[in-house]
Amino acid sequence: MSNVLYHIFPNEPFVDLTLYQYGWEKCDPLHSFGPSVRNHYLFHYVISGTGTLSATDFGGATHEYRVRSGDGFMIFPKQVCTYYADETHPWEYTWLEFDGLKVKETLELAGISVTSPIYHPNVKELGLQLRDTMLHITQNNDLSPFQLIGQLYLFVDYLTRSSSRRHLARTGRLQDFYVREALTFVEQNFQNDITVEDIAAFCNLNRSYFSKIFRDAVGQPPQEFLINYRMTKAAELLKITNLPIGTISSAVGYPSQLHFSRAFKNTYGISPKEWRNEHKIIEPK
After folding, report:
1. N or C: which end of the chain has fewer CB within 10 A?
2. Which of 129, 162, 195 is the last residue of a domain?
3. Cα separation of the two ends of the chain
4. How far apart are alpha carbons 225 and 219 in whole angstroms?
5. 168 in a domain, yes or no?
6. Which of 102, 133, 162 is the last residue of a domain?
7. pLDDT one digit per residue (tens) for the chain, 285 residues
8. Is the dihedral of CA 142, 145, 151, 156 positive or negative?
9. 130 and 22 both lie in a single domain
């Protein structure tokens, strides 16, 4: 029977970079997982042994990759994947599932993509530091959310610096300035009844051009980002306050509680009331 550690990250207020779940497993021969589809990015680092990743690209073609000790593999959101351990030398690996605004840029810098999902370190020592950071997260589940996110940033740093496919960062692009302006506008105005047109107008850009550069930089359309940002803020309020759901709806830019509840359920799969019942922080008496 496989040995496994598995943890779920307790918080979600981190927009740039956040954890969802993480763990470690020493697999039995031919132990497999999938086919499955993830909602977020999932990275495995192979500590020992070997295994195979079978991944479908977004054009529908399936590719197989042999992954060995010291390497890693990335699974992308909405990608159908199966992976299984070798029969003779089954792998032991550690993993992180994460997401956020910085992920798309991080993977571009690391040279990791749907068509090139395998990580190989260009410097062995940096690869080992990547491994140790992942294991530190997995083996210290009692760390505070801020400490865990700090370790996640270290992981991202090691990933981009150590990848053999590493690209140089592009700096000073005008598009990046517009995207930063748009993100600042959302952060300061999400509680108001703003639209994508309002964000584009703030940046003095045509909506279609703005939508294109935003999606290229962030990895999702501005409308989807705005909804997800509001839902993240709503989830935080549901967890840490006793505010009525109608009040929270207004606080995140939804004058209609019905529209808010529908958007929340589309994002989290359950109603705001059900989510609060499952995640509410109980104050000590």
Report:
1. C
2. 162
3. 42
4. 9
5. no
6. 162
7. 457 776 766 665 667 888 999 999 999 999 999 899 998 999 999 999 999 999 998 888 999 999 999 999 999 998 999 999 999 999 999 999 999 877 888 898 889 999 999 999 988 899 999 999 999 999 998 888 889 999 999 999 999 989 988 865 555 567 777 888 898 899 889 999 899 999 999 888 889 999 998 988 888 899 999 998 999 899 989 988 899 999 999 999 999 999 999 999 998 899 999 989 888 776 544
8. positive
9. yes
- 273, part of any domain: yes
Same domain, 97 and 210: no
Q: Kindly give the residue spans of alpha helices, DSSP state H, lying in the chain.
A: 103-110, 124-139, 145-162, 174-189, 196-202, 207-218, 222-240, 245-251, 257-268, 272-279
| Cβ pair 273, 280 in contact under 8 A | no
User: Residue 167 domain-assigned?
Assistant: no
214-149-168 Cα angle (round to 5): 50
190 and 155 in a single domain? The answer is no
Domain region containing 182: 174-279
- Cα dist. 258→150, 235, 272, 274 in Å? 37, 16, 11, 15
Same domain, 130 and 220: no
Instruction: Give the pLDDT confidence of 52-75 residue by residue, as tens digits.
Output: 999 998 888 999 999 999 999 999
